[in-house]
């Protein structure tokens, strides 16, 4: 049992790599604010589905990966991911019972918090955006949440990730 | 969490994490390689999925262009020698022959707030921090971080970037600042009485010691004289195609640091 469990956790890493790739995919300048935060979405899903496996440390690791890959300030996304993961782990029991649209609203708040922290670190280096701008990714993420949830749920069951 | 805050502060305010970051950037290169596949496929398609007629047409057009440029160059040779002679007369420093290295853009910063691009040359090719980057139209930016195989370039439109320029027409000096918009920059502290007009070409003045002198930076598109404000608002459109150029040029100021395979001006003249 132990062996098969360890065997299937690679899938989380695969989703992380896919998420990282999607988040550095070049997009036209006009819609660059509408790029969902894929890595955050994926880790919200995993911390809801496997709260005993995915904790604050793995969220921190994912955030560091995102920082390295997107050439951001080291720790920028890690900080935001840690906060989001902490809130997810506190409330996963309640969120799991929600309907999709309710979860979407909640995801909007989570990614919004993420964006808030990212923007806070950005403002240290002189880049800062208006809230109406930096909340757009949160909006896009909320819209994408049902799709992400469905796809990941299906793969999680297929590969018996635990 | 506290640890992360410490890391963030370390990275923002101290240079201690620089070497770690430049090593870590090796990890991120494969991701950019993957996301670059679609554009490489389309480029391959443009190269291979064309008819013979199209190729012939393109060939003819390129030959005509070459002729035009060669005619211009003939005129240039005389101008250059005249320039050198005049400079000798004036006892001023001689022009340094700059070397360039052709690089390819492999990624764009995923954060819309940060105008950075990733190029496929790094410390293996002697790229150094502060090195200017050009495209065929004008100045693009400067290298801010160097990894072994790739480096990051801060574009001139980033809101943390500013560079000294002068108006090509009359030599008025100014500082052009990025405002976080790819198509617009602003001139800083230009008083209302300065002789500057819409359509003026701004070239780098070389005063900041970072950028070489005389490369086009942008054209003035709009001037706002608002009596309520102490300075005139001057909007500048960058010359370089900041979101379209794929092939870019790195300029080496000191020829001794340049790698072997860079093009020098004498090479170019041999090609000619």
Low-confidence stretches of chain A: none
Helical content of chain B stands at 25-40%
Largest sheet of chain A: none
CATH fold-type name of the domain at 162-238 in chain B: Thrombin, subunit H
Distance between the termini of chain B: 60 Å
Give the fraction of residues assigned to helices of chain A: over 70%
Can you describe this structure?
The complex is a heterodimer of chains A (162) and B (272). By secondary structure, chain A is mostly helical. Chain A is 75% helix and 0% strand. The longest helix of chain A has 25 residues. Among the domains of chain B are: 41 residues; 77 residues, Beta Barrel (Thrombin, subunit H). Chain B is 32% helix and 29% strand. In chain B, the strands form 2 sheets. Chain B has a 6-stranded antiparallel barrel with strand order 1-2-5-4-3-12. Chain B has a 6-stranded antiparallel barrel with strand order 6-7-8-11-10-9. The termini of chain B are far apart. The C terminus of chain B is likely disordered. At the A-B interface, helix 2, helix 4, helix 5 and helix 6 of A face helix 1 and helix 2 of B.
């Amino acid at each position: 049992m132990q062996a098969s469990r360890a065997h299937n956790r690679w899938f989380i890493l695969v989703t992380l790599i896919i998420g990282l790739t999607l988040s550095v995919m070049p997009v036209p300048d006009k819609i660059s604010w509408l790029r969902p935060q894929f890595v955050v979405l994926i880790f919200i899903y995993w911390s809801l589905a496997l709260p005993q496996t995915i904790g604050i440390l793995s969220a921190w690791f994912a955030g560091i990966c995102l920082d390295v890959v997107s050439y951001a300030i080291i720790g920028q996304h890690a900080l935001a991911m840690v906060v989001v993961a902490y809130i997810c782990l506190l409330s996963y029991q309640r969120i799991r019972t929600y309907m999709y649209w309710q979860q979407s609203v909640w995801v909007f708040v989570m990614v919004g918090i993420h964006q808030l922290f990212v923007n806070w670190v950005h403002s240290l280096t002189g880049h800062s955006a208006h809230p109406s701008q930096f909340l757009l990714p949160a909006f896009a993420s909320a819209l994408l949440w049902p799709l992400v949830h469905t796809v990941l749920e299906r793969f999680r069951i297929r590969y018996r990730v635990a | 969490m506290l640890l992360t805050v410490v890391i963030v502060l370390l990275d923002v305010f101290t240079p201690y994490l620089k070497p770690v970051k430049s090593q870590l950037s090796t990890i991120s290169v494969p991701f950019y390689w993957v996301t670059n596949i679609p554009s490489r496929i389309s480029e391959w398609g443009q190269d291979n999925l064309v008819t013979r007629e199209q190729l012939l047409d393109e060939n003819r057009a390129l030959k005509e262009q070459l002729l035009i440029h060669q005619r211009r160059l003939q005129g240039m040779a005389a101008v250059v020698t005249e320039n050198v002679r005049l400079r000798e007369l004036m006892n001023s420093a001689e022009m340094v022959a700059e070397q360039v290295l052709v690089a390819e853009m492999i990624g764009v910063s995923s954060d819309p707030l940060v105008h950075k691009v990733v190029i496929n040359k790094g410390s293996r090719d002697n790229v150094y921090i502060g090195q200017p980057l050009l495209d065929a139209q004008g100045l693009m930016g400067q290298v801010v971080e160097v990894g072994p195989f790739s480096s990051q370039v801060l574009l001139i439109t980033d809101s943390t970037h500013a560079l000294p320029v002068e108006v090509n027409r009359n030599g008025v000096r100014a500082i052009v600042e990025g405002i976080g918009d790819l198509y617009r920059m602003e001139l800083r502290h230009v008083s209302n009485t300065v002789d500057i007009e819409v359509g003026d070409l701004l070239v780098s003045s070389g005063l900041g010691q970072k950028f070489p002198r005389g490369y086009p930076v942008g054209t003035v598109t709009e001037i706002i004289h608002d009596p309520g404000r102490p300075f005139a608002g001057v909007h500048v459109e960058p010359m370089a195609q900041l979101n379209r150029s794929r092939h870019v040029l790195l300029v080496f100021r000191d020829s001794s640091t340049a790698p072997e395979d860079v093009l020098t001006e004498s090479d170019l003249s041999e090609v000619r």
